[in-house]
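Entry 14. Ran structure prediction on the chain below.
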Amino acid sequence: MMMAASAYNSGRSRRLVCKRMRSEGNTLRNYRIRKKTAYIFAAAFLTAALLPGTAAESRAAIPQNGIVSYMPGVTDSMIWPDYWLQNDPDADVVLADWRGITALNSAMLAKDECNMNDLRHYPEYVKAGLPDRLYNSSVSEFRSYMKDGYYDRAGNPIGEAHLQQIMSNIQNAAYAPEHAVQYGIAVRRADLRAYPTDEIVTDELGDIDFDYVQLSSVRVNDPLILLTQSADGRYYYAATSSCDGWILSEDVAICSGKGEWLGAWDLSEDRTLVVTDNRIYLEESNTDPAVSGLMIPQGSYLELMQPMTVPSRISNRSPQQNYAVYVPVRNADGSYGKRPALISQHYGVSAGYLPLTRRNILRTAFRMLGDTYGWGGMLSAEDCSGYVRGVYRCFGLELPRNTTWQAQAPAVKYDLSGMSDDEKKAALNQLPAGTTLFFRGHEMIYLGTENGNYYVISSVSSAGNPFGPGKIRIRSVVINTLDMKRANNTSWLSNLYAAVIPYQAG
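Output, structure tokens:
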């Protein structure tokens, strides 16, 4: 459990960890676009548009099955989750019940190294000095970006003018030195930012899909503790269960008090609908524009309507073949409200949390296969740790935000550091599919082995190019072997330092 004082600094800690991760080769520092090449598809009727990349990257884009390209060693049959479980007689055995999962969640909240916020017992008052602390830590960090020659959205070097514009928005004189927190609910998937700005800070000229200001994201109906507001009123500084940062005010509905706030999200399992698809969309509606077309990502929890309370029409439709749920909305005055909505039964959703079995772990993970990579949850996507966290949320397991913190989870952990590659392979042979594997700056979900190769699925930013020299910008959820190289030309296997079975208490 984070103490009140440390809660104010967790956003800074997250950014420092992110910065270290970037220096460890997981990301795109010093990588530069040199020329454009064409993606050539074998199917005669498909012609790809010119995309930026190196000549070696264009070779990676040549499909291996005539339509879709894979990493080396990956075949058509491997893209189906059940392929990895065909010899597992226990694939459908429940590995952790709800009592065990809630005990693990409590243990993670209590462990300082997991850097999580116990929102139910969060302090009700903000101590004096929070805006000053935010200001000072942000200035220090932003000056490091200036020193290292980072860029803004338009490709201009980050400079003093950017610093002053952003930092002047942090301190809001309207907030008393000590004041009560507010309770909010996210009404859409939203970004959590290091500073109250939509400005981008990137280390690669023109790469506006990778933004250091991005910390994390929140899902529809996620609870927020609102600590202060930016000077222009556009952002709240909020604590979430796993990270602190700035969120757009328009993405938050303010509850009348803690009771209403808890009622929105602290739901019993029989009242919870879990989104297990990579994302779903509510149907468009002229009748209910507040919820029309709303995107709801994997791992979101919504309140199921009780059967006796379902009206004859929702959004001017009869509810047959649909789940009836409540969706949070922001009223005109910014207050919290909820609207009934329908979710088609053909979507990947679960009434109650999914049973935690190996089959369900892989089927949930594979729903994201091919989706874009999103650093810190930007682009309505997931980075490596956000991806793993979203998968396990479908079972009610609340993991910490980033790789370093997840590796500290109070679960069964195997120390792989100091082992030879052969010793690591021997250890992997004993581990079940669904185990999370870690090297500095990246994590992945273990799938299994075939023909001496060890396979994982993860959301990858960049890696050593398996098709030629240099690096390849992957930026997708992909399957690959642990022979994959890092930018320093060492294999993922040789860099593994830990394996964690997240659902087994350590």
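The mean pLDDT is 89. Will compare against last week's run tomorrow.
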